[in-house]
Design goal:
2 domains, alpha/beta, 19 strands, Aldolase_TIM, metal-binding, Heme chaperone HemW, globular, 41% helix, three-stranded antiparallel sheet, TIM Barrel, 17% strand, nine-stranded mixed sheet, S-adenosyl-L-methionine
Length: 501
């Protein structure tokens, strides 16, 4: 049994930092992009099998989890950010009638799922409306959707309800009033950076006035929902000192209940990467600076009383949100809406990316998913292990429960990675569980990659290599250039978006 890590001296901050490098290079990728690089070819499943699996939800049994939540995707945005790779459509091209129609189909798909015995047999824990920017929906549509969810979801008033948006549209007259009236208890939105110059460079068009308006309106309404904000670091032209000042300003001015802090992902030949390659936007700084930023946010938010509930999330509440718990493979997820993803039993669902096809599928079969298929016990174990570094805790009993479900090779592969991480000092072993320590949180992208790598196809492997900064380049502040990886990705550009959501 390894001794628990008790590190007091700085790893990367200051002149006397020890600068440990437990891996050959640092993964600059964030959690949400990683589990989608697996080799499974979603489009090769016969349509008849997908329909059979959809119909299997009339059977209430066969579950891996007793709890279930719902993710609802709204793909519309008022404008596109240069770094974003989520499924989204340009809001100005959508009239109110089309957005109301989208809401009609959300309600139709929700109703289909809520009629299924499998869903009815589970304990409902939460609803998360994400995007895109759901706050671009007309206020009347948000009212209708909220009222309908209240009618059909068990214990609606008692479960966790998260609504996401962006400041320009969240501040619209009446929207926060509706959300308060229907008991949405987590309002989450992106700020990303408080540096106005960097803010513009990454394509953000909201302003500090918009952010202030959201906080002020919630205060005026006496709206007690948790405010959950997104921030980014390793941004173009951002210095360590600048990031430190931004984080201090965020805490001083807004004091949010929860903060998600994401490393900027520079996906090849997407707008932000192209702007840097063309010399129109500065480089983000060296990998050493990236590691220093991660340590600074860990130390600063810990000292401010925040809890590191999952790897990139800091909350004033010690417990994880239901959405975080489900996303880390501890609950089932119903995926509703264009491009939504879900997990039911050992089956993964991915809904159509195009709104018209999503609506056609809802009309035809109730559930829109194109891909509902089993990943089997080995796939479920992979999902649990890939999410372990994000969830930060792994019960040995949960791991041992797969001994009779998967082959010896799968368990041996998992144990080999665990042993390597123990030796590297990024996780700790306890009597009943493994936990990720501070160094592991700083390097958590690497931990996830180690559990994922055996599933990668060529496209995933190439992208992983692109997103890894090698140890030899840690002092390099010019991180972007044409490489064999960027050439390959450009040649296969149309095939990457499905991998990278």
């Amino acid at each position: 049994m390894s001794p628990l890590t008790a590190h007091q001296e700085p790893y990367y901050l200051g002149d006397n930092a020890s600068r440990p490098v437990p891996f050959d290079g640092v993964m600059t990728v964030s959690h949400y992009i990683m589990p989608n690089f697996a080799t499974m070819d979603w489009h090769q499943v016969p349509r008849e099998k997908v329909v059979e699996n959809i119909r299997s939800l009339t059977d209430p049994g066969g579950n891996l989890n007793d709890r279930i939540m719902m993710y609802i995707h709204v793909p519309y945005c008022k404008s596109f950010c240069h770094y974003c790779n989520f499924n989204r459509y340009h809001y100005p091209k959508q009239d109110s009638e089309r957005l109301e129609r989208y809401t009609d189909y959300l309600i139709k798909e929700i109703d289909w799922y809520m009629r299924q015995p499998y869903v009815q047999a589970r304990e409902f824990t939460g609803i998360y409306i994400g995007g895109g920017s759901p706050s671009t929906l007309p206020v009347t549509a948000v009212e209708r959707l909220s009222a309908h969810l209240r009618k059909v979801v068990p214990n609606f008033d008692g479960i966790e309800k998260s609504f996401t948006g962006e400041p320009r549209t969240l501040r619209r007259p009446g929207l926060l009033d509706v959300l308060k009236d229907h008991g949405w208890d987590r309002i989450t939105f992106g700020i990303e950076t408080l540096n106005a110059k960097i803010h513009r460079k990454i394509g953000r068009l909201d302003t500090r006035d918009d952010v202030d308006a959201v906080f002020n309106r919630m205060r005026d309404l006496d709206y007690k929902a948790d405010t959950c904000v997104d921030m980014m670091y390793d941004l173009p032209g951002q210095t360590l000192e600048g990031f430190q000042a931004e984080l201090a300003e965020l805490l001083d001015c807004y004091d949010p209940a929860e903060i998600d802090l994401f490393t900027t992902i520079y996906l090849p030949y997407r707008p932000l990467h192209k702007l840097i390659m063309d010399g129109r936007v500065e480089q983000p700084g060296s990998p050493w600076q990236l590691l220093s930023m991660r340590e600074h946010l860990y130390d600063t938010l810990s000292a401010a009383g925040y809890h590191n509930t999952i790897a990139e999330t800091w909350s004033k509440r010690p417990e994880r949100s239901q959405y975080q718990t489900a996303h880390c493979a501890r609950q089932d997820i119903i995926g509703v809406g264009c491009a939504a993803r879900g997990n039911l039993r050992d089956m993964v669902s991915i809904n159509p990316e195009k709104v018209d096809q999503w609506q056609a599928n809802v009309d035809e079969q109730g559930a829109s998913t194109e891909t509902l298929q089993s990943i089997g016990p080995d796939g479920v174990l992979d999902r649990i292990m890939v999410m372990f570094p994000r969830y930060k805790s792994l019960d040995k009993a949960l791991l041992n429960s797969y001994a009779d479900r998967v082959g010896e090779a799968a368990l041996a592969r998992v144990q080999h990675v665990i042993d390597g991480h123990l030796a590297a000092g990024v996780i700790d072993e306890h009597d009943d569980r493994y936990t990720v320590n501070k160094l592991g949180v700083i390097w958590h992208g690497n931990l996830q990659t180690d559990y994922l790598r055996h599933t990668l196809n060529t496209k995933g492997e190439v992208l992983m290599n692109h997103l890894t900064e090698s140890r030899a380049d840690f002092d390099n502040e010019d991180r972007f250039e044409v490489t064999p990886e960027t050439v390959y990705i450009k040649e296969h550009d149309a095939e990457y978006p499905r991998l990278m959501k």
